[in-house]
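FORM 7B: Structural annotation worksheet

SECTION A. Query
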Amino acid sequence: MPEYKAPLRDIRFVMNELLNSEQHYATLPGGEEATPDMVDAIVAEGAKFCEEVLAPLNRVGDQEGCTWSEDAVKTPTGFKEAYQQYVEGGWPSISARPEIGGQGLPESIGIIMSEMVGTSNWSWGMYPGLSHGAKATIELHGTTEQKEVYLTKLVSGQWTGTMCLTEPHCGSDLGILRSKAEPNADGSYSISGTKIFISAGEHDMVDNIIHVVLARLPGAPEGTKGISLFIVPKFLPNAEGEAGERNAVTCGSIEHKMGIHGNSTCVMNFDGAKGWLIGPENKGLNCMFTFMNFARLGTAIQGLGAAEGSFQGALKYAKERLAMRALTGIKNKQGPADPIIVHPDVRRMLLTQKAFAEGGRAMIYFTAQHADRVHSGESEEERKTSDAMMGFMTPILKAFLTEVGYEAANHGVQVFGGHGFIAEWGMEQIVRDTRIALLYEGTTGIQALDLLGRKVLMTQGEALKQFTKMVHMFCKEQADNEGLKDLVEPLAKLNKEWGELTMKIGMSAMKNRDEVGAASVDYLMYSGYATMAYFWARMALVAQQKLAEGTTEEAFYKAKIQTAQFYFKRILPRTLGHAGAIAGGADCIMAMDEEAFAF
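SECTION B. Predicted structure
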């Protein structure tokens, strides 16, 4: 297995040098306590836990998987004990408000821990990870009593949470779900139905699991307008607020999957289980989006983690594996062959992994700072602006970063050659574990429709303009920077083309709505490459400035500039292909009769 080492130097670079986190935290209520020394100490301790406790369990989880029985689901060896250490360390409560038992630190600090946990052991990280969304949903939409009963235990990690949406006959189209909620005399509801693909739906790591469930009330409108949201605990809280009587919710089975074997993916049966309404009747989907947006940001981290983890494994191997001689002459005179890192194609793959990992980290941490402002911004205008930025970035992060993270994972296998196909090296596990990231929390196609249709076209381009204005200002400010000319000029051109491309799609869609669906995935990938280009240009600027000031870390900053140059010259040209595909239109996709799809 690749030996995971938290990329602390790059994490500090993004937080402190690129995003000026100390200045950012000073604008948040209570954020002034998040000094660089405190944040460094938290991150370092989190890195130690991930490297020493979670990473060694990654292969264990893959090999053992989870075991189902009628009574419970047993997690792999060591998972439960690791979770106990996680709770004892206070990690679940980092970003929660002190009033509900949290430590009150900004969300962007919690994101760092989420990255390290996810990269070291994604399957394990899903158990506490899903609780973040449950906490946010109950905190924003729950009653005072619901908060008192459930929030503190979710915050402490004593209980975990899930999201129960998908049913056997419906996935992303939640408008056709069938689960029912019948009112009880005591104000509760009787929940009946079957949910599938429920990650961490049943396990042995905590004494209660809180399910957040979508269901229909009697007489509810059809479609998504008739969906309500409910809290359904595995064990009903007793008078003392502890887990009491077993509720009528059971795990019917667990899925046998391509990857993430260490996480239980469950079929959950609700047989008249007692639940309580969260938020207004028939507004469940609105409330659930709180949960889903957290989950989508978490899934983006899986893409980042795949790129980072596969890069670490591939880099170490490429420095040690000997094969052939460099085309420019012998490099390893003492050995029978040169290390494969001297070969251009191996370097191409390594640099692609590095560019996606470090670029993705900048994109996610930037968005996490906007999450801080949404929660704690000083003014309504600031909160609204950051919410719009998060809405625009979320589908790009979720879909683009998982697509390129999966590509990076495959590069990791390729660098190893035949050994990459062998389980003992762990590279093929990263591929298998990452593949689901392109599917759950909305497939790439669903995210693309959300970006192009809802976030861009339905706002008349306002969501896009907020970002492209930021890029325009950067390019304008750096127009005379000769050292960044090779980055700034193509970025400025791309930024202009982005707006023009959007307008063309909008005009075509006025004549044929299928043009949106036909263009959406290419548009999202184009947007992802353009967005990452902006962050690589910014990182190159910071590195340029540090080198000009004088530094003992010349190699680190030179590598930033060189990786940025690689990204612009070898990866960014992919936008040309996506723009060309968009220009191809919908007719060539939709013209064929359904009957012609034959074999």
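SECTION C. Observations
The CA atoms of residues 479 and 485 lie 7 Å apart. DSSP finds 19 helices and eleven strands in the chain.

SECTION D. Sign-off
Analyst initials: ____
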